[in-house]
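Notes, Module 5: Reading structure tokens.

Key idea: the token line is not a picture. It is a compressed description, and you learn to read it the same way you learned to read a sequence, by spotting repeated patterns. We will look at two proteins. The first is printed below with its tokens.
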Amino acid sequence: MTGRNDSAGADPETGPTLVITRLFDAPRSLVFKAWTEPEHLVRWLGPKDFSASGVRLDVRPGGAWRAVITSPEGKSYGMAGVYREVAPPERLVFTFAWEEDEAEQMLIAVTFTERDGKTEMTFRQTGFRSAESRDSHRGGWEECFDRLPPYLAQL
């Protein structure tokens, strides 16, 4: 928990909410694996032109996760959290915080619904301190999810 202030007392289920829904041309078991296996997550996590590294996932309730994304300029951003709910291949719920002092403590819930051989993914993130923070995350997540279909097509 280096650099994080877990005693901030913020409730990760309040504040502005970010919801993104995407339809992927892949079975939900594969999309779920893309979220829960390090060798897959490292390939699409991060905005366009970012790279991911140090992905560690203990995918079980109470299990910790951590990843680092690095910008094209070489600046690294660590993120971490704990899984609260794991229901393969339907749902993941986990906490999320950047590894920095006074970081927002957020909650992410991702549901995967089968739609005629495709997967509808609904991503919901709560715990933002402001609409501005939510909107900055929207851009980053949208770019991550733009990277996911080409990767899924390779599998």
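Here is the second protein, with the sequence above and the tokens below, as before.
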Amino acid sequence: MKKILKKVGIALLIILLVMQFIRPDKNESGYESVAYFETATKPTEAIQTILKDKCYDCHSNQTIYPWYAEIAPVSYWLSDHVEEGKEHFNVSEWEQYSDKKRDHKLEELIEEVEEGEMPLSSYTWLHGNLEEGEKEILIDWVKKLRSQYASVK
């Protein structure tokens, strides 16, 4: 039994070592990926800070990776989070969204923030959660922003 455990342990160690050299693609297009969104939505400085600090990492093509993102299997886990976040809402694709889709995405943003679903708890462990004041100004801004797109329904 000890020999089997030793072989399994060695195999797992080799797999973990090999994973360090096979990395997922990074999501780093730079600031220009959110420029259209910011130009179209005109966020205040406070809103821009919230978006940059709490949203863009998973909901744009502009992820700023922490040091631990270089270590597998964390790198794979983070890559999956970013890809999933972008599937639901990607500000870097704002230009391609129809007004109806923009309104719907903003409606979902309000729901997720109000229900405490965003940012994800796994993100907030190290990056912090939205404070109540931040939630309020973000939701108020998004509600005003929705009025631009709501008439399209």
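Summary for the second protein:
- The CA atoms of residues 71 and 77 lie 10 Å apart.
- The longest helix spans residues 132-150.
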